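User: I'll paste a sequence; please echo it back and then give the predicted structure.

Assistant: Echoing your sequence first, then the prediction.
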Amino acid sequence: MSISSAFEKFESLYLCSDVIKVTKTSGTLANLFEAHKTDFIASGKRTYHHYKTLHSTISNSELLSGNIKRFCEKINVDSFIPRDFCRTFKTLDGQLKITKVIRDRIQHHSLHDVSSVHYDRYDYNEEKPEVLLKWENKLKEIMN
């Protein structure tokens, strides 16, 4: 299509009443962020505020650290760091024949291969609970 014919087509479309006209307005970066946040909340997604509140609730709670401490005392473990938990999960799920892809998804490891970044949009939400239940049963077996 030549530029002149494209321009003619544009003029004919511009005069058509069914075409939505876009006007150019200026805004601030704050306006952009506020619009994004509003859209985020409207779609049901969590915002930074939700995560900050959740983090402060967990940080202020000794529930997790108390349970870890009692568990370590029960099985005679001298020290424990969160990375130990991740390694144990990864190892035991490997023994349970859970694929590395599913284990990485559960641990929210970033996947940088082309397939994961561009094509695989599946959330694995059906597999995650199944794997966690298998893992829980394996832990109970070890503890008894």
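The mean pLDDT is 76. Residues 10 and 93 are 60 Å apart (CA to CA).
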